[in-house]
Design goal:
This protein has a single domain, classed as Up-down Bundle (Growth Hormone, Chain: A), CATH 1.20.1250. The chain contains 16 helices and no strands. The protein is mainly alpha-helical.
Length: about 400
């Protein structure tokens, strides 16, 4: 590891938490925002997920820029815009004003999330890359612990105050200037060449399965982000700080699992990690659909967090090892696009189910979809393996 890497790593990990914070910092005050701006239960979810739509739209732009000029400059500009757009929520009092600010936040996240992944893949190799990508996943999950707690505490005073935390993007941009090296030029000199991104997908069809996993994972994650606070409110738990504590039941297992990702990957293939994750999520959602107490809701969130902690790092490194260095920016931008489309569509798809059949039905439907994906992936694994044993299978 080069001399700058220790400092670079800390800045990368701190910045990685911001992509999770984009939605999680205001999750504990979602009900208060709904009352403050006069939004209905189905529409208020868009305040959290609108940024996801704009991440989806602008990620390909960010990916193309990163492949041309490297990830450092887009990273810096993304952090500055993140601070300004997110922090503007301190002064906004209308539903549509928040939606516009969240749109600009999404553009910022598009630059940040793709830059971080490309920087990690370019700076690190082999087992060290797995370890660092796991740490990135753990940092995301720790952010999922810390930011909602801070949001819940600040939200106890005013639903506006959690938006102030977004301003941390500005000092982080200064640290990126100082500590992060530009790696793209030295890395792409010896990179292989492909005719197009389309050809990469044609030659590596496993990418379609990986992208499908990302899309599904984001839909399921935001089912919890949007509808668990409403389920808690239904059973009489409405205090923002108390709601933030329930997020810990998912975030802590995710953080610990991601922290151990390097060891997990030594024993399990990417495909086996995906299969285990889908099984855990099936259990989580079906249990959650039957939950009628705070304790059972908390227990239901644990297996989801474990699966999230494994699958997140696996997807990133899996894609990174599949495509050429010179195409990483674009391919990861499309991955981000699909993932954030999933985030945006989650309340759009599940909202009508909640309104017509109730909140519990949302989780039951999600569990059923996870079970179907598990069966489909299991059949696909047997086809890929040709009947061989799973243990030790690579990749």
């Amino acid at each position: 590891m080069k001399s700058f890497s220790r400092y670079s790593l800390w800045v990368i990990l701190a910045s990685a938490t911001l992509t999770v914070m984009a939605g999680s910092i205001i999750t504990p005050v979602l009900n208060l925002i709904r009352e403050g701006v006069g939004a209905d239960p189905a529409s208020v979810g868009l305040i959290i997920t609108t940024h996801a739509l704009f991440v989806a739209v602008f990620s390909p732009v960010a990916g193309n820029i990163i492949d041309r000029i490297g990830p450092k400059k887009p990273f810096i500009l993304g952090l500055i815009l993140y601070g300004l757009a997110g922090g503007s929520g301190l002064f906004i009092n209308s539903y549509w004003g928040l939606i516009v600010s969240r749109a600009f936040l999404g553009i910022a996240v598009a630059a940040i999330i793709t830059s971080i992944v490309v920087i990690i893949l370019n700076l690190y190799e082999g087992e060290e890359r797995n370890k660092v990508m796991g740490w990135r996943g753990s940092a995301n999950s720790i952010g999922g612990i810390v930011w909602p707690l801070i949001g819940g505490i600040l939200g106890s005073f005013s639903w506006h105050l959690p938006f102030a935390v977004y301003l941390v993007g500005i000092p982080l941009s200064v640290l990126v200037i100082i500590t992060i090296p530009e790696t793209q030029k030295e890395k792409t000199e010896n990179a292989g060449t492909e005719d197009s991104v389309l050809k990469i997908f044609r030659n590596n069809r496993i990418l379609f399965a990986i992208f499908g996993l990302m899309f599904s994972a984001m839909i399921f994650l935001y089912v919890l982000v949007v509808f668990v606070p409403q389920l808690l409110d239904k059973i009489g738990i409405s205090n923002p700080f108390h709601i933030s504590l329930f997020i810990l039941a998912m975030a802590i297992p995710a953080a610990l699992t991601a922290l151990m990702y390097g060891r997990i990957k030594q024993r399990l293939s990417y495909k086996m990690i995906a299969l285990i994750t889908l099984a855990l999520w099936t259990v989580a959602f079906i249990t959650l659909s039957q939950a009628s107490s705070g304790a059972l809701i908390a227990v239901s969130l644990v297996p989801f967090g474990i699966g999230q902690g494994m699958l997140g790092p696996a997807i990133m490194v899996w894609v990174g090892e599949t495509v050429a260095i010179s195409f990483r920016g674009r391919v990861f931008s499309y991955l981000a696009t699909l993932g954030f489309i999933g985030q945006f569509l989650s309340p759009v798809i599940m909202g009508p189910i909640a309104l017509s059949l109730g909140l519990n039905s949302v989780f039951l439907v999600a569990g059923g979809i996870c079970a179907l994906l598990f069966l489909s992936f299991f059949v696909g694994m047997r086809k890929w393996l040709g009947g061989s044993r799973y243990k030790g299978m690579k990749p």
